[in-house]
Amino acid sequence: MKENLNIDELLSEFIDGQLSTRQQTEVKRLIQNDPEIAKRLRELQRCKMLIGSLPADEAPQSVLEDVKATLERKTLLGQHSGLHSERQGARYLLARKVLTAAAMIGLVAVLAVLVYSILAPEAATENTLALKSWQSDIVITPKKPTTFSGKLVLNTNNLSAAHAVIKRAINDNLPSGQSTQTILNGAEGPYVLNCSKETLAALLADLENVWDRFDSKTLFIDADKTTVNNVTTRQITEIAHQTSLKNRVKIAKDFAASNSMTQQIPGKEVFATLENTKPQLMTPPKPVLTSSEKKTKEPVALVPDEQKIQLTIVLTHNQ
Amino acid sequence: MTQAANISIDDTVLVQKCRQGDSDAMERLIIKYQNRIYNVILKICANVDDAAELTQETFVKVIENIDKFESRSSFYTWAFRIAVNLTLNYCQRNIKLGYRSLDAQSYTDSDQTKHMLKEFLTDEDAPDPAALAQNKELCQLAIKALMKLDDNQRAIVILRDIEGMDYAQIAQVLEIELGTVKSRLSRGRSALREIMEEISK
Questions:
Q1: pLDDT of chain B along its 201 residues, tens only?
Q2: Which phi and psi (to 5°) does residue A302 adopt?
Q3: What three-state secondary structure class fits A154?
Q4: Looking at the partner chain, which of A49, A54, A66 has a beta carbon nearest the beta carbon of B139?
Q5: Is B39 at the interface with chain A, CB within 8 A?
Q6: pLDDT tens per residue, range A85-134
Q7: Total structural domains in chain B?
Q8: Contacts of B56 in chain A (CB under 8 A)
Q9: Which of B43, B167, B183 sits opposite A18 (nearest CB)?
Q10: Do B165 and B159 contact (CB within 8 A), yes or no?
Q11: Other CB atoms within 10 A of residue A105 CB
């Protein structure tokens, strides 16, 4: 069978004229000597002849028009170029992948926010408790109206006269019960004022006339952490009117810096005098009680918490 | 071969113009090859309607991909490669293609035709090819025999004995080695001879 196949291949090539001259001679010799091979060759030749003589069919007349119509349709639909379509397809797939990834990330983010919003309250409470250990003043203390609390230290050569001035200012401005004075070993101690900001402002206005007679005036606020040297009555009023501790500290530091610079520039006395005399010029003189009749005490007034201030006035003797 | 060479020279110009968007060149290429491609496709698939559709599809693919044609082979073999590939794929999709063929199915072999075929194959005198082409019954028998061949063998026999391609061109069209062309063609012809011998009994 294999031999027949080899002979058939040889004969097939012989029919097509693909053999070399030597091979052709060999095949011719085989044909002459073997009638079976000759018959096989003749049958193969006849098969080839029969197939080759089949009538050629002509393409339908519509092929050209159909091809053109198909190409036009594909062009209109944007499918003309195969290469172009492949590139577009690749870009489209890439864009789809990127958008899918973005959508996934977005979805995960939304889910994370949702989960966090559900679990956050407990976590926040834990965090607050943790903060309490090192921010006790801020976190533990319940929120309440921030009140001014400070200490004013006035230094003078004439302590008894200073006490008299302070007492008169307190009596003239503060309702009874809004001030206390401690007596230590028979000596007069500090004055503690619990009054409104307006009352404090009026008291300080009364003290403006004698303010320069004090050798030094120092205000301490924020648990004595912030100090304003050479403070003026107006500065105290302004500090006390601030609504938050942060603002009070900030403005106090500004006044402290300003006062320090004023102390260092030449002619400071003139500036200080001008500053202190201004209100006197602008403010009408306070009526003075001339009769011996004592001033009627105003009834005790309740001071709203949000306006309440506490000021401790300490008089010290200049050594 | 000389004819093919001449075709290639003309084709190069037409292909170049076609790439530049010359619709006349495109039409000339189609007109030039439509009958030959249609004839090969029809002989392989043996269905007139499908052959027309496959021919149309071939030329659409040719025009769409003409920019990819690299001129390493001739346009002629490149276009036929597309046509044969499309047709063989079509044949694979239609396993019962041979039985579906109108030409092969509608014809009933008569004893006279069988005798004629037997005489034709064994007659020592050389027959007249023109007379053969006139004998429709004999042609129908030949087509029937072709359709009984394996798809790949049928394609190679048709490319050689009907289209008249040389071995090198067949190798380019089918993208196979030259030795494969020789052996496959030989096996196809041997199988065809046996089929015809069987039919003629």
A1: 444 444 445 888 899 899 888 889 999 999 999 999 999 999 999 889 999 999 999 999 999 999 888 877 899 999 999 999 999 999 888 765 454 444 444 455 677 777 777 777 777 676 676 677 677 888 888 898 999 999 999 999 999 999 999 999 999 999 999 999 999 999 999 999 999 888 877
A2: -80, 130
A3: strand
A4: A54
A5: yes
A6: 555 566 777 888 889 999 999 999 999 988 888 776 554 444 444 444 44
A7: 1
A8: 63, 66-67, 70
A9: B167
A10: yes
A11: 10
- Please report residues of B whose CB lies closer than 8 A to that of A83: 65, 67-68
Tell me whether residues B64 and A18 touch, CB distance under 8 A: no
B27, B45, B59: best mutation site toward chain A, by most A Cβ within 10 Å?
A: B59
pLDDT: is A309 or A281 the higher one? A309
Quote the pLDDT of residue A145: 46
A53·B122 Cβ contact <8 A:
no
CA distance B92 to chain A (A): 23
Query: HEC string of chain B?
Result: CHHHHHHHHHHHHHHHHHHCCCHHHHHHHHHHHHHHHHHHHHHHHCCHHHHHHHHHHHHHHHHHCHHHCCCCCCHHHHHHHHHHHHHHHHHHHCCCHHHHCHHHHHCCCCHHHHHHHHHHHHCCCCCCHHHHHHCHHHHHHHHHHHHCCCHHHHHHHHHHHCCCCCHHHHHHHHCCCHHHHHHHHHHHHHHHHHHHHHHCC
Is the per-residue pLDDT at A296 higher than 60? no
Tokens 């053969």 correspond to what residue? Answer: B132
Mean pLDDT in residue range A156-162: 85
Q: Which residues of B touch A9 (CB under 8 A)?
A: 182-183, 186
- Tell me whether A44 touches chain B (CB under 8 Å): yes
In angstroms, the CA B158 to CA B6 distance is 22
- Closest to A43 in 3D by CA, of B197, B73, B79: B197
**What's the angle, vertex CA A160, arms to CA A187 and CA A252, rounded to 5?**
90
Res. A146 pLDDT band, cuts 50 70 90: low
Which of B37, B45, B49, B60 would best serve as a mutation to test chain A binding (most A beta carbons within 10 A)? B60
Decide if A48 and B196 are in contact by the 8 Å CB cutoff: no
The parent domain of residue B164 ranges over: 2-199
State whether residue B59 sits within 8 Å of chain A by CB.
yes
* Minimal Cβ distance to B192: which of A47, A52, A68: A47
Q: How far off is chain A from B64, nearest CA to CA, in Å? A: 6
pLDDT at A58: 92
**Residues sharing a CB contact under 8 Å with residue A98, sequence separation 6 or more, in sequence order:** none
Residue B155, domain CATH: 1.10.1740.10
